[in-house]
Amino acid sequence: MDSRVVNKGQLPELLDKLARDYILVAPVREEETVTLFKQVSGANEVQLDYTNSDVSPKGCLFPQTEKTISYTYTGDTLEMKETDDSPKTAIFGVRPCDIKAILALDPVFEGKFLDKYYLEKRENTVIIGLSCTTILSTCFCTAFNSGPCDGKGADLMFTELGDKYYVEINTEKGKDLVEAYGQYFGKEDIDKLAKAKEEQAKKLEGQFRRKVDLEGVKQVLDENFELPYWDKVFRKCLGCGICTYVCPTCHCFDIFDFVTGEVTGDRFRCWDSCMFPEFTLMAGGHNPRPSQKERVRNRFMHKLKYHLDRYNLDGCVGCGRCISKCPVNIDITQIIKDLKEVGQNA
Amino acid sequence: MHNPSPLTPYPATVTKIVDETGDVKTFTVEFDDPQVMEDFGNKPGQVAQLSVFGEGEATISITSAPTRGKFLEFSVRRVGRLTNVLHQIEVGQKIGVRGPYGNWFPYEMMKGKDLFFVGGGIALAPIRSLIDFALSDQYRKDFGKVEILYGARSYLDLCFKHDLFERWPNCPNTKVYTTLDRPEEGWDGHVGFVPNYVEEVNPSPNNKVAIICGPPIMIKFTLAVMEKLKFADEQIITTLEMRMKCGIGKCGRCNIGSKYVCIDGPVFNLAQLKELPPEY
Amino acid sequence: MDVIQQLREQAKKLLEEKKVEMVIGFGEGTELARTTPIFIKSPEEVSDLTWGPFCANNLVKYLIDYRNLPGKVAVVVKGCDSRSVNRLLEDNQIDREKVIVLGVPCPGQLDWHIVAAAVDPAANLKGFSDDGESFTINTDAGDYKFDKKETMLHKCLVCENPNPVVSDITIGKGQTVRNYEDRFAEVKTLEQLGTNERSAFWDKQFDRCLRCYACRNVCTVCTCRLCVFDQMQPAWVSKRNNLSENTAFHLIRAFHVAGRCVDCGECDRVCPVDIPLRKLNQKILKDLGDLFDTPTPGSEAGLASPLGEFTTGDPEEFN
Lengths: 346, 280, 319
Prior knowledge:
The complex is a heterotrimer. By secondary structure, chain A is α/β, with parallel strands linked by helices. In chain A, 33% of the residues lie in helices and 21% in strands. Chain A has helices at residues 11-21, 96-109, 116-123, 172-180, 190-205, 217-223, 229-233, 242-246, 292-311, 321-325, 332-345; strands spanning 2-7, 23-30, 34-40, 65-73, 78-82, 89-94, 125-130, 156-161, 164-169, 253-259, 264-271. In chain C, a hairpin with a 6-residue loop joins β1 (22-28) and β2. Chains A and B meet through β4, β5, α3, β10 and β11 of A and β4, α2, β6 and β13 of B.
């Protein structure tokens, strides 16, 4: 694996160049308290003083609302036009947890049926990761064999070390970018920085408040669908979509049409949440998940078991956004802990 | 790059509409591009997504067997927003169809065996594709005796009356048992609920496969009867209904445990069903 | 601490004497300065109950989920929450006979994010004290002092009802009304802006909206069985997330709750992208006060919604 060094002072210029040649998406601060991944036109809009964004960057590959088809429909003909909207994009500043989440989402949109909208964006997007420098009390990525400086899955991985960035080149795409902007990528002190990165990673790994141990948890879920435990957890859940919408691995969507004229219209897909009561409601009235209990159980079983079953990848990456944002403090690390206890008491 | 997207339907025309009951219609649909039909390759038990642009899509099982011709038949009950609009469509109008999705009835393992079909109400539609497949000129000799036991609330609610009373009884080695839930003037056939009728008919599990489809409560009681009659779990096949959106295993809506009904189902045998969490 | 003990004792008594079937209160959360709603059905569980300046949640909404229980339900309320109780009673959503209100006068609630940023991430809570102008949070990693004006939720700075306005059992000593600033100061600032500027301000806010519906779900007075935004036949607001639909959602909801919103501020607190929703509702509250001279909904028992009744003296601007 090849690596380079970028001077911190030169990063703004590099970002400006990237913004000129790509759609550059980077963390942006709004209203002083909200950090979101948005398109920027230059380095001056980028906010690097952040731990992580409030909403994950999955929206770059899987937007909240996306037009899939526009149709023109008459008695005689039915014409459909698919949306082609996958410009060359670079996402800068993706944290290790969110990188891992993209890897977890990939198999969902691949498989027997290739999802054009996600995959075209994925192919045309360069993921530039950025190692963490602060661990929040809600972070727990180490529970999933990851860490605050783990760049696996990113095309390039930047780690801030003093006045330099140590850059790991992980893919051909990353290599191409480094070649295209060669003047910013040097090799000075590269071995020293590589070592500093390892030390930084170790130091940060000691700062996690949440010690999450997944051992035995999947087994509890494999062997038990009905558990009295779920009767307790679900009561406080408001049934909103916050956890699912801020989560970087959630991928549920709805498809609906929007009429634009007498014979024309658009078909969209948009995020949907398994926590909403009507998610599994069938025309005719039957709902296999009629109460919040079933829905809460389904969500956690999906994150901790179903995703693993289907794709052999963790359904949760430990970003902690759901813990931070849930209005009633439903906490997946608490649930993991409780399930472990259920398993031990059995 | 990835054209066409699996979410894009193919244009098709409605060529025939049969009013089965007050609220069920069977639509015969032909693709505008005959090559699409050539490549479609649907197998009995699979479903498709019907698009009424402006309203949306709905998952409907393909009730016609692929052996019956270069068209698709869908039986739709008017029960919601989209199906309401579907029911107002006229012959000649265009809709969108994409598919086929889901798994299919494991007819390979049924070859050489007798088939016992049990259906209730509109739920005869999904298994009708297998019935006609087994009764087709091409494959009739591969299967043994075919028995079809079907019931509905009233005579009016019986679907596929032409098939029940005229076409199927005239097929070789085929028997049809029809029942109504309650007695009705003008009906001198069997009266009683489907599960009870099954018990009366008392099919032997010997070299037989049971294929069951119906409303959840009918399935529940019929499965109990089949177990009583000593059918093994692998001999009992059913097809489930779940709310589906994408049909291609991505939108997350139709999961039962780790399985997606649109990819791993909707056909399951009882052994597989028992492994699924009871959330359907 | 004493409040916590009394709370537990009262809850224990109510459950042991089978006076209530369930007690809804605050339990320990998984972050230092957070609590979580708990639902207690047996006397042994009362030791889970807690209290402090980390109890921002309004628990009254849950009464709607449990109103069909055969027995009574007790709920722990602060001052702002208690207004919700009155409002739900007025809306006939709950039965006064089936609710036992455990009112706790509130010293103000801290914004847990601010506390989390200031405290050692590994610290565990040991206790707190209210020092008048500040809170001291005691942890096993040291004591931290938080100036109330800097760290309380904004709504607590202008709290009109720190003491519950309806209560069956009051626990703890009464608190004084707080007005660190004019209650409608932020609204007035916005009112100064021209239409275009105001529009630009709100466009920027609504653009962030995720349509997670947390604001609607947490709102005590959003009690429609089928919300207009979930209705598909017809679909009044489409599921598309764009500025137009998002704006429609927020403005329609603000008007739907107008006259009944008790200004508990929960909508504002729960928004994951910090849309200042309370400003919308406060604007309406201010206007209602100006037009109809009504107090905050729920602040007195038996207050009808100003938009739900009229008197002949009401302002009539179209004459």
